[in-house]
Amino acid sequence: MTDTPSKLLSGASSALPTRRQALKTLAAGAGAAVTMPLWSRYAGAQSAEPIRIGFGKHATGIGAAYGRWYERTSVAALAKINAEGGINGRPVELVTEDDGTDPKRAAEVLEKFASQSKCDIAFGTLFSHVVIGAAPRAAELKLPYFVVSEGHHVASGMLNRWTLQPGITDVKSQVTAMAPFLTNTLGKKVTMIYPDYGFGYDHRDNLTPAITAAGGEVVAQIAIPPTETSFTKYFPKIPRDTEVIYHVMVGPAVLTFVKEMGEFFGPSRPEIFGFIDSLEAVDMTSPGLEFLEGTYFWEGMPRYLQADAPDYVKAYRDAVGIDENGASTSDGADVSTAAHMFGCWETLHIIKAGMEAADYKSTDDRQALIEAVEAMTDMPAGPDHPQGAKRFNGKTHQVFGPQYISKVTDGKLVVAETVGYEDTLYPDEVDYTTMSF
Amino acid sequence: MRGKSWGAVVALHLGLVAVLFALNFVLPVYHQGVLARVMVLAVYAIGYNIAFGYTGLLSLGHAMFFAAGLYGAGLMGLHFGMAAVPAWAFGTGAGALLALVVGALALRTAGVSFMIVTLMFAQAVYLTILYFGDITHGDDGFVVPSVSRTLAGIDLSQQHPRYLVGWALFSAALLFSLWLVRAPFGRVLVAIRENEERARLLGYDTGARKLGALVISGTISAASGAAYGLLFGYVGASFAGVQYSIFALLWVLLGGAGTVLGPFVGTLFMFYLIDLATEVTDAYMLIAGVVLVGLTLFAPQGIVGEVRRRLWRDLP
């Protein structure tokens, strides 16, 4: 768990200080002097008490790679926010708890944030089942819960007024935005290969009508059970007239999947399009992935530094600590989850904007914070929104933003096309603003 | 057991029930919420204890019964808007039926084979939940609608009603368990655990009694699952995964297999062990692991089991 500065600095002092305590005091004094310019920015605030943001981290379990990078991105975002004067003049700190990528634990973690850690709000969490498991508790606790999940569960109306997703787009808008590119650029006849559970169904159910609307046709839907470790028996099911293969396999078997697909097709393959979720945190130069050369991927935000990247994107990448290949600057083998983690950065900036718009002072203002975020609309690209310009829909609690289509070129992902948020919108399925708090 | 000693045992268990009731009104909100959750999950452990602790049936698939209750109640709420009590009853009944069917098949085996067969059945249930994703919402799960989380006009998602319903269920399961292990049926279960061959030679139909024990165990586990879904508002496939079968085993072993209070103590101990370890370090699982190894080495019969061995030999 992240220790708070106040906790670190507030040791009880006895009447007769020991040499160690004296040294500690001197060290604290020196630290305060060094950081004086930073603290002086908070002096004008009515309360210098930090704003505490509870961060549900996938530190263990299936989402651990995401959790690691979500935390790094969040820490970097808060360092920037604090350096710019915090929120309403108050410093902001992250209170991190491992949710184990488990919905039961995630609900318990929210309870801890609300009652034990005295957090103002809760934030984080990628995996859909974790969000869905925790969100009811957020509503019961009346705790604003900002998720970075990309699931459609927020905009579908399944959750509640206390749960918002303002920093990352949802899978429905992502998938439907890909259909025109698939049919216009790669081919009209599409075969889908997807895991036989919720994540795969999201793609199946959203892409199929979108392809039809774009003038194409899904000629086969091949669902692969999640327990499968070899895929050779599924490839003969791909119709011969397939022009595009759309794949969204995830999990540890994905390398086997790609390798076996390469062995099946050899040099005469159809066009291939996938979602980078398959290969998040996986090095594109891993053995077996050579077959992906020349294929296309959806990316939430480009992993590799693009030639035309604006300065604010470079600043974001430097702050988070990723190199031009999207790996950690301190360890080139530690590949980031670049396509998703920007959502933490942007969400924290939206929380700051929301709290400042609501003149947030204490947990009594949580409802005002929700209403302030619901009132947001356009979010221009820039240092606070490095992924691109977005539009937030306060009724559905969901943001819409640009989608990137990248081509594997010399083992790197190079953006081939960008879809603006205007082309990712879909009709509202819920109006949370009509629900009571 | 002597009358006086039995009186003390009853007083101890009723005392725990009374203390838990009183804690609703004095605990800080976080710990009150924790205890509500622990009591509901302890019911699951009590169910497991009847099969494993008292009958010697080492199941590695009890999550299927918990999930049967969870989904039985949750799906009735989601698709039919069923009220809390009938939804809970439906979930509990679903678990009882599943336990009857699984028991009739799995009890043809014993020992390691029984472990594997129950594990396989549980995996089949888990994959069934994923396969019928259109109905069950697959691995994502779903939020239980508020109509099923209301009892006589009282919102079960609220702090005190949730605690009291969890307490009532736990108290009923605990006292039933206490009664059962002293009843003739329960004593035969212990005889089967100790030496099934001898029990059979004494004329007992051990097969029927093991099936009865498994059905009771599965029903109580399902009652816990159904209550969990309705009280905490989420139903998901992760609760049917193998780790939730292992949790029940772990809680019972830690608390003391074959003790009435052991499942509750084990569940409570495990929750706070993880919760407090996360305060100390990110590597909290290491702390939990070391403590568990230590407990296994120095208190192999579990916490309540050790109390029985050292201090109170008549403790059931």
TrEMBL record, chain A:
The keyword DNA-binding does not apply. It comes from the Bacteria. The keyword Protein biosynthesis does not apply. Residues 50-411 form the Leucine-binding protein domain. InterPro entries: BCAA_transport (IPR051010), Leu-bd (IPR028081), Leu_Ile_Val-bd (IPR000709), Peripla_BP_I (IPR028082), TAT_signal (IPR006311), TAT_signal_bac_arc (IPR019546). GO terms for biological process: amino acid transport. Gene3D superfamilies: 3.40.50.2300. It holds the Pfam family Peripla_BP_6. Keywords: Amino-acid transport, Signal, Transport. PANTHER family: LEUCINE-SPECIFIC-BINDING PROTEIN (PTHR30483), PERIPLASMIC BINDING PROTEIN OF ABC TRANSPORTER FOR NATURAL AMINO ACIDS (PTHR30483:SF6). Belongs to the leucine-binding protein family. This is ABC transporter substrate-binding protein.
From TrEMBL, chain B:
It is found in: Cell membrane. One of its GO terms (cellular component) is plasma membrane. Its main location: membrane. InterPro entries: ABC_transp_permease, LivM-like. PANTHER family: ABC TRANSPORTER ATP-BINDING PROTEIN, HIGH-AFFINITY BRANCHED-CHAIN AMINO ACID TRANSPORT SYSTEM PERMEASE. This is Branched-chain amino acid ABC transporter permease. It comes from Pseudooceanicola spongiae. One of its GO terms (molecular function) is branched-chain amino acid transmembrane transporter activity. It is a multi-pass membrane protein. Keywords: Cell membrane, Membrane, Transmembrane, Transmembrane helix. It holds the Pfam family BPD_transp_2. The keyword Nucleotidyltransferase does not apply. The chain crosses the membrane at residues 6-27, 34-54, 87-106, 112-132, 163-181, 211-235, 247-271, 283-304.
